[in-house]
């Protein structure tokens, strides 16, 4: 099951976030609450959609530049993946660079155990040392990984779901965890440019089959299921829009009529056309991404993009 990190699933946290977010003049529900079991399955389905280019483009970049990555970082690395690993991207990287050890890091021990077992079966000789930790803060690596040269891996453009300040904080935290003389391989979705239109981006977040709409609306079903809500899900419409000024795709749930409902023990009202802001997905030009690296203690080393200018894979060092 695909699940990007930056997820904290405690119900009390969810209830408090829903109460606080729906009470604001511009209603908001943080995107980390998308990923219950159904939401994680819907996200996995999104990654296979024809319109959602990031996953297959990043896989293509990893496959096409595996030898370049291996040549840059050298053999015998400890690979530290921030997240519990992807069944396609992680093996591509590990096969290319012949690491000494692999350390997947995830806040969920359950996800970690599942993915570490699958990976160990594929790489019988490789020591796999899972760490259950919140990687948004620095944490201690297993001794065996700390003793080797280290390569951090953060694919999937997950960084894009953070506002720039929080993105810098996370990258600084990676730097503190990985220590000096380490590398970071990170996938970032590109902003529109010469060959990529805003329409391509908007379609990736509003697909023809309605899977992304179901993913967005699942937040309301989740409130009804888990927080005794009576939100009229049918009265909300999914909307994805490119905000050029802020450099991000925004997802919203728009009320199609005047509404009153209960969620997490409180009553709320919305007028037709009002919306709940559910996600930001920041997109970075190559230069902005390099600036992000420098602002967080990393030195840009190499950059690979696809021929259509859709996605970027960065190798940074420190
Ligand atoms: C997890 N994250 C990188 C995805 C993205 O593209 O921002 C989440 C997503 N939201 C809608 N579609 C995919």
From TrEMBL:
Protein origin, superkingdom: Bacteria
Transferase keyword on record: yes
GO molecular function: L-histidine N(alpha)-methyltransferase activity
Enzyme class, UniProt record, top EC level: transferase
Histidine-specific methyltransferase SAM-dependent domain residues: 15-317
Record key words, sorted: Methyltransferase, Transferase
Keyword check for ATP-binding: no
Enzyme nomenclature, EC number: 2.1.1.44
InterPro entries assigned: EgtD (IPR035094), EgtD_Methyltrsf_superfamily (IPR051128), MeTrfase_dom (IPR019257), MeTrfase_EgtD-like (IPR017804), SAM-dependent_MTases_sf (IPR029063)
Family matches, as Pfam families: Methyltransf_33
GO BP: any one term: methylation
Name the record gives this protein: L-histidine N(Alpha)-methyltransferase
